[in-house]
Amino acid sequence: MNKEILIICESIYNGNTLKLGRSMAGELNCQLVSVRQAENLDVMKYKAVGFGSGIFFARHHPILLDFITKMNFGEQAAFIFSTHGSPILGKYHDPIKKMLIQKGRKIIGEFSSKGYDCTGPFTLVGGGNKGRPNEKDLRRAARFAVSLFPEYKPIDYYHSLSCRNPLREGSPNIYKVNGVEDEEKNVIELKGDLVTVNQNQCTGCGQCVKNCPLSVFELQQQKSSPVRELDCVQCKLCQTYCSSRAIMLHSTWRDSLRVAVRHSKREFVNYDGCLK
């Protein structure tokens, strides 16, 4: 767990901003907390802190702003993120930026995305920005986080393989590679090709099993195994929910065509959720 970065997110409306926070925290392998949880932490010990919420009346949520007003901060770097309903972001970040700068913070980056909004005039059409933030927005959020802190980008050991085996239906390949110098376990075990699970990093939490819409994963010996990686459509939900960053996806345009043809031939889904 990255203990140098903290993300504080107050998302109480539709959970829009929490999705962005999870994407960033997952990419940086850092802690994501609410304001109430942050009140019990020593915020000053972190190298950088992210602050995010939905936009309420042209500014971040009052709970987050009140927290910044009351807390004593060091001179850590800060980044800001939000979700908003209006078509144009405007200057909604200005109030929180001003507060942070007055507290001695250096703003190193800002990110915002449209979020589902069912207030005001949007109620007439059943809500605006339906489906936002979407997968594209979450990927943008992850790239934003990495651009700020490239040193925390997860290592994809799969790219270090000099030889790879043919894909096998229902039985993912297992590879062993040497880890980085600081690894306690120098030999890293990887399982899968299109969907690769680092067995050393996997905690067996089961979030990938729970959230994968195509049942790509199974828990085997308390570790995740991509037994149906040939069905993967690269939606990246598994990566979003993997707190240990143990999952890497590898796909070319040929793989995308292959999986599209594969699913076009499917006729039904059985009772355990697996495609046939």
UniProtKB/TrEMBL annotation:
<keyword id="KW-0004">4Fe-4S</keyword>
<keyword id="KW-0479">Metal-binding</keyword>
<keyword id="KW-0249">Electron transport</keyword>
<dbReference type="InterPro" id="IPR029039">
    <property type="entry name" value="Flavoprotein-like_sf"/>
</dbReference>
<dbReference type="Pfam" id="PF12837">
    <property type="entry name" value="Fer4_6"/>
</dbReference>
<dbReference type="Pfam" id="PF12724">
    <property type="entry name" value="Flavodoxin_5"/>
</dbReference>
<dbReference type="InterPro" id="IPR017896">
    <property type="entry name" value="4Fe4S_Fe-S-bd"/>
</dbReference>
<protein>
    <submittedName>
        <fullName>4Fe-4S binding protein</fullName>
    </submittedName>
</protein>
<dbReference type="InterPro" id="IPR017900">
    <property type="entry name" value="4Fe4S_Fe_S_CS"/>
</dbReference>
<feature type="domain" description="4Fe-4S ferredoxin-type">
    <location>
        <begin position="224"/>
        <end position="252"/>
    </location>
</feature>
<dbReference type="GO" id="GO:0051539">
    <property type="term" value="F:4 iron, 4 sulfur cluster binding"/>
</dbReference>
<dbReference type="InterPro" id="IPR026816">
    <property type="entry name" value="Flavodoxin_dom"/>
</dbReference>
<dbReference type="GO" id="GO:0046872">
    <property type="term" value="F:metal ion binding"/>
</dbReference>
<keyword id="KW-0411">Iron-sulfur</keyword>
<keyword id="KW-0677">Repeat</keyword>
<keyword id="KW-0408">Iron</keyword>
<keyword id="KW-0813">Transport</keyword>
<feature type="domain" description="4Fe-4S ferredoxin-type">
    <location>
        <begin position="193"/>
        <end position="222"/>
    </location>
</feature>
<dbReference type="InterPro" id="IPR050572">
    <property type="entry name" value="Fe-S_Ferredoxin"/>
</dbReference>
